Predict the structure.
Amino acid sequence: MAPARATGARRTRLFGWDLVFYLGCFTFALITAFASEFYGYRIWGSFAVAGYGIAAVHSGWLLISARLQREPSGRLGSRWIGIAAIGLLAMLVPLAVLVIRRLTGVDWLITPGSWAAQPEVWVIERSATLLLQHGTPYVDVTALGRPPEVNDYTPYGPVMALFGLPRALFGGSPVANALTDARWMFALAACLCVLGSLRLLNRPRIPVLSAQLVLACPLTALTWAVAGPDLAIAGMLVLACALAATGRAGWSGFVLALVISAKLIVAPAFAVLAVLVYVRARGGKPGGRTALAWFVTTVAGTTVVLHLPVYLVDPGAFIEHVLRFPLGMGLVRSPAASPLPGHLIAGIGPAGNAISLALVGIAAVAMLVWLARRPPATGSAALVRIAVGLGALILLTPATRYGYLVYPLILLGAALTFRAARPALRPPRSGLGTTSS
């Protein structure tokens, strides 16, 4: 009877955690529904309250049943019921509603209370149109004939414009605009990357906690409905890690180059994946050096190929949008400002800004020391290190948004699935970047 009691006690603790988690999410959604200045956020919150509420009620029922030793059998007894409710009511339904609401046409207005999509959606769609018309997704903000404003900027790499191509190529009618909304493209890319990663990992059983962090967390669900680019980037980053963990160094480098060429903030992942590739390939023997060289060459070569044509069209615009604006050195200052430690410290003044940047440097050195002393040998270990590194960068950078914390949450959740899949990783067959293990 002792093992049974232990198992029952563990399940009770899990149900208790689920209840606390969903109640916290419910509270966040409720506050968002009534207090957010953004229309899309409020719509999301209105639907998400129902999704998280159902999940909390179901978890409470499971907890009470477990305490009474009357746990339900069948599908109703599954912890995945709550995840399903959130996927439907906090992700799919609000996204569809907001896509339809966007057809009324309020993009580009300085009225957050009417936005059915966050500005990054329109900006990325515009960048695709500019890329097709002029060969660069970046406008020359000095040639607008008026003072530039924040939405004139496209603070992304050239690859991000690809998500707006369907709208640029096929949009025009209400139905076409609804079907080609960039948020569908972000969601599709994220889902395909998750499916590809799971296939590489031999379709492991996904822990519920992993799904809660990756899918059910309010940061993920909210981003899915109102914006989406960060989910696509996080998905591609997880895929790059899965490729590296299964010995596909070249393909990992290629995907990572796409990621870096879409959003520069994830560039620190390069160091972690490079170490993983080296350690993964024959434990650092000559084969490891070959795999590392192939990985680095692929990342560097692909990144240059993706950036150089756009840079040559208008070097000044490229530097202004991709480098100067995100660093707070552009003609218009970035509005990114969340009450995170780096921003609060930088708010003291020039000395605070210097301190914040120094802390970023210290964090970077600490990450390099961690990589040197405890190099990651598995995909899960690499994801944890990337999550910690990006989390430190997001928390300490002077100009950042709390929404970027979706990256460490997704990566930590993915690490749990990678850990569950460790005994049965799919070995590489042959081809680009394949190494033996």
User: Anything to note?
Assistant: Residues 2-35 form the longest helix (34 residues).
